[in-house]
Amino acid sequence: MAPADPNSTGSTGGGATRDQASVKVPSKDPKKKDEKKDEDLSEEDLALKQQLELYVERVQDSDPGLQKAALESMRNLAGEIAQEYAKRQTEEAIIDDLMELVGQIVAFHMKHNAEPEAVDLLMEVEDLDLLVEHVDNANYKRTCLYLTSSAKYLPGPDDMLVLDIAYTIYMKFEEFPRALQIALYLDNMQYVKQVFTSCNDPQKKRQFCFILARHGITFELDEDMCSEDDEREGLQEIINNIKVNEGYLTLARDIEVMEPKSPEDIYKAHLLDGRASGGGSVDSARQNLAATFVNAFVNAGFGQDKLMTVPSEASSSGSSTSWLFKNKEHGKASAAASLGMILLWDVDSGLAQLDKYFHSTDMHVIAGALLGVGIVNCGIKNECDPALALLSEYVDKEDSSIRIGAIMGLGLAYAGSQDEQIRSKLTPILGDAKASLDVIAFTAISLGLVYVGSCNEDVAQAIIFALMDRSESELGEPLTRLLPLGLGLLYLGKQESVEATAEVSKTFDEKIRKYCDMTLLSCAYAGTGNVLKVQHFLGQCAQHLEKGETYQGPAVLGIAMVAMAEELGVEMAIRSLEHLLQYGEQNIRRAVPLALGLLCISNPKVNVMDTLSRLSHDADTEVAMAAIVSLGLIGAGTNNARIAGMLRNLSSYYYKDASLLFCVRIAQGLVHLGKGLLTLAPYHSERFLLSPTALAGLVTLLHACLDMKAIILGKYHYVLYFLVLAMQPRMLMTVDENLKPLSVPVRVGQAVDVVGQAGRPKTITGFQTHSTPVLLSAGDRAELATEKYVPLSPILEGFVILKENPEYREDH
């Protein structure tokens, strides 16, 4: 039955109401109750109303041709209503009669599978709440899909409102995993709690915990969310990400890549012509340092390698120490820390194996061991806080390298946790007049990581004072630029919340004022896709400056950070960056490859690969270095053969240049990250959610790469370990209700965007069927190829719990 005119005396049955509705078009009977109502309407509205009633009649007609015509005219009517509404809003006229029409049209659209039209109309008249009444079991999924997809293109605060409605609808239909995702997208912890309290199924709660763990936030369950102590402990363990190590190793065994790889296996020097494989002229300490990083990246998380963890029977004196001492001074710090990377996520054996370095007399080795402890604990929370216990006593030591090791270790281990103890430990260092600049810079970054996206006033103030205390000469140092970045990370993705701090930054010394402004803006709008901000950054890059201006670097990175939110933005940003390459000054050209690396991280797009390949032979060595590292970033963890080939050729091209060769080696290590099982992409859950800690780690590395020579090729090469924050297994691991791995067939293919399409379109294309666990590349989506099990999460990524389908029958 059509939504009959609500003013007609509706006590009679449906048929009567319809008769009245149809009679009413011609009649102007003065005795009608509606007489008065109709006189309130302007002529235009009367015409609209009569039109609507005619449509309603037609749509109920049994003739399908008429129905179609009515649907078309409904669409026109919706457009006219939107215009009329806008007109009345400006004149501040009454809109009640319009809203009544809107209600009828929306009800009509929702019944006739035209959810996008209904949503669009309600957005126009600013009354999305109406939607919640009209959705039903048949159309809520499509409606919410449209809402969440359109949110990316709406200006604030509308985008948040739209997602709020989607959350409400998902909660109404108990589609909890989707509701949880929206809660995380909105960064609304109240909503997250609500999802836990509304759901009574313990298995589903476990699935929520896996989603939270993947997102990398710290979250404490309380009595309301889970009443039973044992069950709550189990859930908290999942949130604390304890399971990731065994899941990752299960995947590695399944794919049969447990065999440790040496750096030589990656370089594949035998495939090159004669000249480069010798590499005689190259400084050997730098080569060994490169091999240390390659070894760490390739064997990350596998717990064994051929340099650091060689078992003692290989040589009685223990050969792992001998590799350590093939590195010079600060190189030993990175070498010791690489052990932490190899034992990534395996806290118990990681701490046991790092223990031997704490007894060393060499300051750099101890510093590396402290950093290693931070790396092992990265992304894993632990009830007994081993990282804090081990590292806190070293934070105030004399030696600056030990201090940096401990501070950076704390930053990695507690990223995103907003831990008060860390704040009270680290903030005093920022105001310490005796602390060296590098210690202060790393303290700011670590505080930024621990309080990422929290807008914490106290930390912000401490970093601001530290910036104001710097002398003229210090402001010119490359490391000083990490201070504004630490400040920016506090506001990562928080948009307007940064404004007060941005105002304060305008009072800084003019040497760093604009740099700070760009960094703060780029962090605050990271992942929002805000077009106006991208234009603002492009405007900053268009200025042709005197030498010595550095603020355009963060502006270029800002374009990538803001535009990475959705595919269209990425394509447009890549095009804009091409223009900057052609017309920009040198300092801009140096940042462009890094921005491209962030836009396509772990997603080697051919056009970007070609651009970077061209830039890797650039006349300016800084541009070439940035391009080479970015080749590593876009291919990170993909084992991409084409990039691997490019890098091999570059290694023979630059065989005499130690610095460039070092960059090539780092890139080779990244391409084979975790033997191809890891990804650095900060987006997950079908590219809907952005993990703040992962993005923070990437951005920190990229800012350090803006001045390669001083930082990565200087003595701070361990900033490369900030990437550990973004490393995640790119797997789909299906487990049964006891969380034991369960192998089922799944189809993996390119994801297809099905927003607003009619019927039940296929969500993936060009699929292959594999049995789990499987690897997912960028833009891949998986779906179960069996009906025997039902997944507890609609998005098949990471750990997914399957329960048996009660309606499944073998052999029909």
TrEMBL record:
<dbReference type="Pfam" id="PF17781">
    <property type="entry name" value="RPN1_RPN2_N"/>
</dbReference>
<dbReference type="InterPro" id="IPR016643">
    <property type="entry name" value="26S_Psome_Rpn1"/>
</dbReference>
<feature type="compositionally biased region" description="Polar residues">
    <location>
        <begin position="1"/>
        <end position="10"/>
    </location>
</feature>
<dbReference type="Pfam" id="PF01851">
    <property type="entry name" value="PC_rep"/>
</dbReference>
<keyword id="KW-0647">Proteasome</keyword>
<comment type="similarity">
    <text>Belongs to the proteasome subunit S2 family.</text>
</comment>
<dbReference type="InterPro" id="IPR040892">
    <property type="entry name" value="RPN1_N"/>
</dbReference>
<feature type="region of interest" description="Disordered">
    <location>
        <begin position="1"/>
        <end position="44"/>
    </location>
</feature>
<comment type="subunit">
    <text>Component of the 19S regulatory particle (RP/PA700) base subcomplex of the 26S proteasome. The 26S proteasome is composed of a core protease (CP), known as the 20S proteasome, capped at one or both ends by the 19S regulatory particle (RP/PA700). The RP/PA700 complex is composed of at least 17 different subunits in two subcomplexes, the base and the lid, which form the portions proximal and distal to the 20S proteolytic core, respectively.</text>
</comment>
<dbReference type="InterPro" id="IPR041433">
    <property type="entry name" value="RPN1_C"/>
</dbReference>
<dbReference type="InterPro" id="IPR002015">
    <property type="entry name" value="Proteasome/cyclosome_rpt"/>
</dbReference>
<dbReference type="InterPro" id="IPR016024">
    <property type="entry name" value="ARM-type_fold"/>
</dbReference>
<protein>
    <recommendedName>
        <fullName>26S proteasome non-ATPase regulatory subunit 2 homolog</fullName>
    </recommendedName>
</protein>
<keyword id="KW-0832">Ubl conjugation</keyword>
<dbReference type="GO" id="GO:0030163">
    <property type="term" value="P:protein catabolic process"/>
</dbReference>
<feature type="domain" description="RPN1 N-terminal">
    <location>
        <begin position="73"/>
        <end position="271"/>
    </location>
</feature>
<dbReference type="InterPro" id="IPR011989">
    <property type="entry name" value="ARM-like"/>
</dbReference>
<feature type="compositionally biased region" description="Basic and acidic residues">
    <location>
        <begin position="26"/>
        <end position="39"/>
    </location>
</feature>
<dbReference type="Pfam" id="PF18051">
    <property type="entry name" value="RPN1_C"/>
</dbReference>
<feature type="domain" description="26S proteasome non-ATPase regulatory subunit RPN1 C-terminal">
    <location>
        <begin position="755"/>
        <end position="808"/>
    </location>
</feature>
<dbReference type="GO" id="GO:0008540">
    <property type="term" value="C:proteasome regulatory particle, base subcomplex"/>
</dbReference>
<keyword id="KW-0677">Repeat</keyword>
<dbReference type="GO" id="GO:0030234">
    <property type="term" value="F:enzyme regulator activity"/>
</dbReference>
<comment type="function">
    <text>Acts as a regulatory subunit of the 26 proteasome which is involved in the ATP-dependent degradation of ubiquitinated proteins.</text>
</comment>
